[in-house]
Amino acid sequence: MAQLESKTALVAGGSRYCARMIGSVVDAEDLVQEALTKAYAALPATSVVNVRAWLFRIAHNKAIDYLRRASHQQLKYLV
Questions:
Q1: Which residues neighbour 58 within 8 Å (Cβ) at sequence distance 6 or greater?
Q2: 8 and 36 in contact (C-beta within 8 Å)?
Q3: Which of 17, 48, 52, 66 has its CA 20 to 30 A from that of 75?
Q4: For position 43, what pLDDT does the model report?
Q5: Of 2, 49, 9, which is closest to residue 32 (Cα–Cα)?
Q6: pLDDT > 90: what percent of the chain?
């Protein structure tokens, strides 16, 4: 039960972090879902010491990619 609570807290924290970065709660939840999927797929081939930091780094990178795509799409509409 404690493990489930820690996973829920981790997802909630990641969602809040991404929401602050990109400005959208809904899109942040999608990014965290993508980050968890990517982390789960990489888990067998990875030896991670700090899982929380690793997941936050993946979520952070997903948010950066999202912001790059969004700015690129905005520029495309301006031209």
A1: 35, 38, 39
A2: no
A3: 17
A4: 83
A5: 9
A6: 51
Nearest one of 13, 33, 31 to 22, comparing CA atoms:
31
pLDDT number for residue 1: 43
What whole-number distance in Å separates Cα of residue 79 and Cα of residue 8? 43
Average pLDDT over residues 7-17: 89
Rounded to an integer, the average pLDDT of 64-73 is 86
Residue for token pair 């879902």: 33
Query: For residue 42, what are its two tokens?
Result: 């990489």
Look up residue 73 and give its two tokens. 């799409």
Residue linked to tokens 């301006």: 78
